[in-house]
Design a protein that fits this description.
The complex is a heterodimer of chains A (120) and B (481).
Chain A lengths: L1 E6 L3 H17 L2 E6 L16 E5 L8 H11 L3 E7 L5 H7 L2 H8 L4 E4 L5
Parallel strand pairs in A: 1-2, 1-4, 2-3, 4-5
Chain B lengths: L8 H4 L14 H13 L1 H11 L1 H12 L3 H29 L1 H20 L4 H29 L5 H30 L5 H7 L2 H12 L5 H6 L3 H11 L2 H20 L11 H19 L2 H15 L3 H7 L1 H18 L4 H25 L4 H20 L1 H12 L5 H53 L8 H12 L3
Helix pairs in contact in B: 2-7, 3-7, 3-8, 3-10, 4-9, 4-15, 5-6, 5-7, 5-21, 6-7, 6-9, 6-10, 7-8, 8-9, 8-17, 12-13, 14-20, 14-21, 14-22, 15-16, 15-19, 15-21, 17-19, 17-20, 18-19, 18-20, 18-21
The chains are: A alpha/beta (120), B mainly alpha (481).
Family (chain A): Belongs to the universal stress protein A family.
Keywords (chain A): ATP-binding, Nucleotide-binding
InterPro entries (chain A): Universal_stress_UspA, UspA
């Protein structure tokens, strides 16, 4: 058993990470941290107090964050839950850039736990 | 588009500390010199092929009975080709290797040149110029990367600079050769075909020369061909240095692979989007300075201001000289002045000289006096532009993006830049015809003012900051909290 989390470069990404840490600690499992931001996580950005595996996004194969996450999930069969931060998006924004969260929810091989910030 | 070379930061700075022995002397250095000479023929061709219309256009236009609009199209089709060549050239160079790509480009240069020279009509010429543009854009993306990858880290900057000087030198060479051909053989039918044909010489030199040059060691390592990479390094470094450098090159090849990580969906991150907008703005406004209206239509401008064709084509050489002098100064200033100061001073000077050109056309009556006054302000504009905004735009593009999205972000900006180049090339002749010099240059002056405001509000300072530091600050200010 293990919990995976997709961390984007945004407030909801940071919230997802917090929630995933709490979730993994509750379940007493490890955490698969899939870093979708454009920088590699440093030691102090990685949560302590539980067993964390960090996957940084790297190379052309990871250009689409959805593909990057799905690939990792299929490589890590022990994961049985994906934590994801979501927020309201405008129609125009979704039309132009699509919604990573929506595509992940629809394609994830494991159940998805979505979290959002209050009042957003 | 003078200095057309995306300078990758990872190419120009040794990001990690590798203690390396001296490059060596004698044979390896000599070999490296030959490689640089051959590869920069790519830059020379870039310059010659973009500059040659400046002087060839008038006889060409008479031959084919072109209108202002179709003149624009003949010139602009090359830039449209270059936009695609620049975007796809890099992809081809990653897949096939730098050497094969440059060989391919040399072939396209030759075919494109022959197509232009033998064109039976304007439509064919437009198509052939598009093909030539693919090679120009491809060379702008590939040659500096090849040079940067094969040069020793401490000399990377100077090799890439050399290519940029060759681009502007190629334009100047085209102006001089056109002036000589036109003044001695102007009576010959279709003399423009001979002007264009000259480009065949460096194209053949590039093709033949590249056959004997080695592949980039960094690309070989990215393909897992370490033995071959070592063999190449041994040709261009002292034996000790070659062995020692393998680790550095392997590290750099891995960094390169990361540059292709980010894509469209990352533009959803606010601070990244802001950087891409700034970068695209840099390319957009660099071309709207109108620098290339001078580089492509300088001779025509002087003719319409009141000089004879033979004199105008000689006077136009001054544009090339000041362009080269400006670039040389600019390269020096890059390391001295803060980026923002240099950009804002540049755009301010550009606005001033455009205003002076516009006023000259109103105040001084048409004739040689007007033409020479216009030329004086034109060269001052060219000099200030090439001494600041010209090279600085490329440098800035190479240093503002986070490493993992650099490839995608640079692709967008360079594409915008070439397309704006094409738009200016396409619409400058009809604008001059319909509105005259005053309104056209008044418009350029206004655009320079808008560029000034845009950059004053948006442009971050990057000088003397390393990328991680810059990213942190920018993200803290513009990221979503």
């Amino acid at each position: 058993m293990s919990v995976a989390v997709a961390v984007t470069d945004s407030p909801e990404g940071r919230l997802a990470l917090q929630s995933a840490v709490a979730e993994a600690q509750n379940l007493g499992t490890g955490l698969l941290l899939i870093n979708l931001t454009l920088h590699d996580f440093t030691e102090d950005e990685i949560p302590s107090g539980l067993e964390v595996t960090v996957i940084n996004r790297s190379g052309r194969g990871d250009r689409d964050p959805v593909t990057a996450v799905i690939d990792e999930l299929s490589d890590h069969a022990e994961v049985d839950r994906l934590v994801l931060g979501v927020r309201a998006r405008s129609r125009v924004g979704k039309m132009i850039l699509g919604s990573v969260a929506q595509r992940l929810i629809l394609r994830s091989p494991v159940p998805v736990l979505t979290v959002r910030q209050d009042g957003r | 588009m003078p200095p057309g070379s995306p300078r990758r930061r990872s190419t120009s700075t040794a990001s990690t500390n590798f203690e390396l022995p001296h490059v060596g002397t004698g044979r390896p250095v000599h070999r490296l010199g030959i490689i640089a000479t051959v590869a920069t023929f790519g830059g020379l061709l870039f310059g010659y092929d973009t500059g040659v219309v400046n002087g060839a256009l008038e006889p060409l236009s008479e031959d084919f009975g072109l209108t202002a609009l179709s003149e624009g199209l003949v010139v602009a089709s090359l830039m449209v080709g270059a936009a695609f060549g620049a975007v796809f050239g890099g992809r081809v160079a990653d897949a096939w290797g730098r050497r094969k790509t440059i060989l391919l480009l040399a072939g396209v240069f030759i075919i494109g040149t022959l197509g232009c020279v033998l064109a039976p009509g304007a439509e064919f010429l437009i198509g052939a110029r598009f093909v030539l543009g693919l090679a120009v854009g491809g060379a702008s993306a590939t040659v500096p990367v090849y040079l940067g990858e094969i040069a020793p880290s401490e000399k990377r900057g100077s090799y890439v600079t050399r290519n940029e000087l060759m681009i502007v030198g190629g334009q100047l060479a085209a102006f001089v050769i056109n002036a000589v051909i036109f003044n001695f053989f102007g009576h010959v039918d279709s003399i423009w075909r001979w002007m264009l044909l000259v480009a065949l010489v460096p194209a053949i030199a590039l093709l033949v020369g590249m056959i004997f040059q080695p592949e980039s060691p960094r690309w070989l390592i990215s393909q897992g061909r370490t033995e071959e990479a070592l063999a190449v390094l041994k040709q261009v470094r002292s034996p000790e240095r070659a062995e020692a450098e393998i680790d550095e090159v392997t590290h750099l090849a891995a960094e390169d692979a990361k540059e292709a990580t980010g894509g469209l969906s990352d533009l959803g991150t606010r601070w990244v989007l802001r950087l891409v907008i700034i970068g695209a703005g840099l390319g957009f406004f660099q071309q709207l300075t109108g620098i290339n209206s001078v580089m492509y239509y300088g001779t025509q401008l002087l003719t319409s201001a009141g000089l004879d064709s033979g004199v105008a084509i000689i006077g136009n050489i001054a544009n090339g000289v000041f362009s080269l002098a400006g670039i040389s100064l600019g390269m020096y200033l890059l390391n001295k002045l803060p980026r923002r100061v240099m950009f804002l001073t540049g755009y301010a000077l550009i606005a001033v000289f455009h205003t002076l050109i516009a006023l000259t056309a109103v105040i001084v009556p048409p004739g040689p006096a007007q033409a020479w006054t216009v030329l004086a302000f034109l060269v001052l504009f060219v000099f200030s532009m090439q001494g600041t905004v010209g090279p600085l735009t490329w440098l800035m593009l190479s240093e503002i993006f986070p490493m993992k999205i650099r490839s995608f972000a640079m692709g967008i900006c360079v594409f915008v830049l070439w397309i704006m180049n094409a738009i200016v090339a396409q619409f400058f002749p009809p604008l001059i015809e319909a509105l005259g010099m005053t309104a056209t240059f008044g418009m350029f002056a206004g655009l320079a003012v808008i560029a000034f405001v845009f950059l004053a509000l948006m442009l971050p300072e990057t000088k003397d900051k390393d990328l991680a530091e810059f990213e942190r600050e920018f993200k803290a200010e513009y990221g979503r909290r």
